[in-house]
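To illustrate this point, we now present one chain and its tokenised fold:
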Amino acid sequence: MAATIDPSLSGLEMHKNLNPQGAVIDEIEGLIRVYKDGHVERLPIVPCVTCALAPDMGVTSRDLAIDKFTNIWARFYVPILCQSTKLPLLVYFHGGGFCVGSAAWSCYHEFLATLAKKAGCIIMSVNYRLAPENPLPAAYEDGFTSLMWLKQQATSSCGGSVDWLSRQCNFSSIFLSGDSAGANIAHNVALRLGNSNNKVATLKPLTFKGTILIQPFFGGEARTNSEKYLAQPPRSALSLDASDTYWRLALPRGSNRDHPWSNPMSKGSTELEQYCGLLPLPTLVCISEMDILKDRNLEFCSALGRADKRVEHVMYKGVGHAFQILSKSQLSLTRTHEMVVHIKAFITTRS
């Protein structure tokens, strides 16, 4: 069963634009409209929520500014029962095709709070700049900025409002993660670290232990079998048309889907091999059987394996893209529990 957008996730009724800004030149129905004059309209398909959590959740959450100039912020999740022990840190980037989504979306708030509790880790969910107003590499730059902010917290001795983070976080056990476009960001942030020993040195004493990529969003001009033949329901979280539109809006002007940021396996791209050589982080890739990205995700794992990178993948049967955040079916809940178990094991064995 492919994951579809659950109507119960949105308490806000979809609405038509009452003040059109000229002709619509790009659109993903129900999610985003881009107008000829550059105006961008994002429709409230998922509500944003505050950082509040129910006391019985066993997790505390708070929002912190990362970079006021670019308006980057992050939502932190800290398991209550583990607050006397320093915990590994999972730096997480949300999905949304680089164009929609938020660290405040209710579906991420619920999923990441649960993951923090069950995996026994602190989670830093980064709210980065979105395309098309801020095309790539803006999101990658925001990811690196977030790591620089973490480095400042790890080396600060003056306390302050985030002193709790230095007390509770093990900065020698950091994982980069995300789902869909967020997994692409996590990979490309790690790639930037791996392509320069200077960047790794710049971030000391932070120590990176692995990447966890959930249904990573990759593309390419040539269609894979899963893109061509894997039928998606009308409310699918990711259709082929939507995927193409996201890449058109997110990539630099004049680029196509074989750009290395979209297709790391494209001909002539050497970044993946360089990355594997300089920063050989273990990688866990979570793949959905009914996802149009399935074949690209498998190709990515094969490419990492050929480059002698430590990679493992898990295939989640019967579910589609973003099932862990957008579907409430019993099968999706079962597969989400399995995913959390796999992520916990990956973190625990490397912390």
Q: What stands out?
A: Residues 330-348 form the longest helix (19 residues). DSSP finds eleven helices and eleven strands in the chain. The CA atoms of residues 291 and 320 lie 5 Å apart.
